[in-house]
């Protein structure tokens, strides 16, 4: 920057004065005009510097870094897929050898049955009719026919049996988890340090990779029924403003620390039934249906188990604005905002009828679809609801949703994207399988701890509505977290004797039902 020099002029009496401010010039003289000129030169230099920077600006490094990360992800995924393929191929060969042995045993048993109990009897009766006039009794014919029918049925069942279940995730489903998107930040917002940009996952080299989920092509945040991101929008004044914070629940912190609940209610029994809307908490307690808001008890309704059945599960449907109450043989609804008398509050859904008088066990809902699981998952029914009509649209058998050797299903639960099934295996270990809404298994769960025995289905499954699930084993008093990648880990917690956990419909409250002592604890998220 050129520095201006002070110019002087000589007055009539021979003194020197500044040609800018006309003040006498001496060693202490500082010209204000000269100072302004110096600052102007400095400002010009800064402007030139910024002009050069803008002209040199480029985003090529952003593209290169993201491209490098994408290529690394592709390489890692291909390597993982190849490794997984090799592992599953070996498992297939071992499993097929076991099945071959089992199949060969079946063949030998059927051949023995045919050669020992059926063919000789038929031969004897044929010989009898050709060598004598003695008549063959109809009873003997019927006995052989029954044996033959039984053998034919067993062979048909074997031919229809799948023997091996191959469950593979479609690569297209990764679209729901991995996206490359433009950072949702206006230029005005990016220049304002007081406005935070939407959360991203940032690699060590600084490139941003967005992980989102989509429904019908629109981004959807966890637990947001409107399908909108919680990031920056432009207000009516044209300035950027922050929307509400996206839902996140730090499960580790929640269970590690003994946090004082916002409010606590004492209950009389150790039942696990619990359902939560955005306004109310609904439980079954000591042959009463009890309704709370987030601060107080609101209503108690008597429940006659002889008339209505023992309650096994309940949930809240935001699309119907109703609590759904499942007993061992029937389904009932309850409108918490209804002003009708108590005897008309609980309505039976007559269209829901269990098959062959089997026991109902668990219920969940997703929009207008209601899923009901029978005891041990012998069947799962799907209903489509357009009030007042409830239509049975599909029924799955246990073999369609479980492994042939599994003991059965304990809970069926829905989150924003999938169905979760808590399954007890033949070895009594628990796992959580992830299904789509057509009950096609997308991911077989990893092994967790065991049940006490095959008859004690004592556990509870809870969705966190962000592709994560909580599993509570009542027998071992342990809580497990299933993450969005299918990995499981046991949570270290000071909470004990938890029977059930529910999130409110608006994801603002976290409710725990526990025993010893029996209580309801409400936490604000």
Count of DSSP H/I helices:
7
Give the strand order of the largest sheet, numbering strands 1, 2, ... along the chain: 9-32-31-30
**Unreliable segments of 5+ consecutive residues:** 186-246
**Radius of gyration from the CA trace?**
36 Å
CATH topology-level fold name of the largest domain: Methylamine Dehydrogenase, Chain H
Number of strands: 32
Q: What average pLDDT do the residues reach?
A: 79
State the shape.
elongated
* Biggest β-sheet strands, sense, barrel: 4 strands, antiparallel
Just name the CATH architecture of the largest domain.
7 Propeller
Helix content: 25-40%
Rounded to the nearest angstrom, the distance between the terminal CA atoms is: 58 Å
Region (Disordered): 215-235
Coiled coil: 82-109
Keywords: Coiled coil
